[in-house]
Amino acid sequence: MQLDLALLSELQEVMDDEFVELIETYIDDSTLRLAQVKDAVERGDGVGLRQSAHSMKGSSSNIGATSLAEILKLLEAAGMHNNLSEAQGLMDAVCAEHFHVCEALKKLYLGT
């Protein structure tokens, strides 16, 4: 798991009191998007996979979850090329990385 702590520190400084809300929103939104990614893979929906992975990739990158964003980039490409067997193979990695990112964010910024 890799978080860009310098980026998160900058965001925290700029956003001040709204930073905790940003972290909470990211956790909620990324959890929803991950469910959409899983659903698209299960349904064999390459377009839906590309769209969901792209959206989750952007928000993960913005929050400094660089490793997660890299895996999502691979998932997005798999969706773009309708390579669902590759996407299936990446699901364990994206789920595990998402879990670790969310747990780290909770521990560092939400006190849980």
Give your account of this protein's structure:
With 112 residues, the protein is mainly alpha-helical. Helix 3 packs antiparallel against helix 4 (66-80). It has helices at 5-15, 19-43, 46-62, 66-80, 84-110. It contains 5 helices and no strands. The longest helix has 27 residues, at 84-110. It is elongated, with a radius of gyration of 14 Å. The mean pLDDT is 96. It has one domain: HPT domain (Four Helix Bundle (Hemerythrin (Met), subunit A), Up-down Bundle).
Strands, helices and their partners?
Layout: H1 5-15, H2 19-43, H3 46-62, H4 66-80, H5 84-110
Helix pairs in contact: 2-3, 2-5, 3-4, 4-5
- Describe the biggest sheet? none
**Within the CATH hierarchy, at the fold level, what is the topology?**
Four Helix Bundle (Hemerythrin (Met), subunit A)
CATH architecture: Up-down Bundle
Number of domains: 1
What is the average per-residue confidence, as pLDDT, rounded to a whole number?
A: 96
Distance between the termini: 18 Å
Rounded radius of gyration (Å): 14 Å
List how many beta strands DSSP finds: 0
| Discrete helix count | 5
- Low-confidence spans: none
The fraction of residues assigned to DSSP E strands is under 5%
Q: Could you state the CATH homologous superfamily?
A: HPT domain
What is the chains' assembly state?
A: single chain
Class inferred from helices and paired strands: mainly alpha
Helix residue percentage: over 70%
Gross morphology is elongated
CATH top level is: Mainly Alpha
Task: Sketch the topology as an H/E string, one letter per element.
Answer: HHHHH
Properties at a glance:
Four Helix Bundle (Hemerythrin (Met), subunit A), elongated, Sig_transdc_His_kin_Hpt_dom, protein kinase activity, about 110 residues, two-component regulatory system, 5 helices, mainly alpha
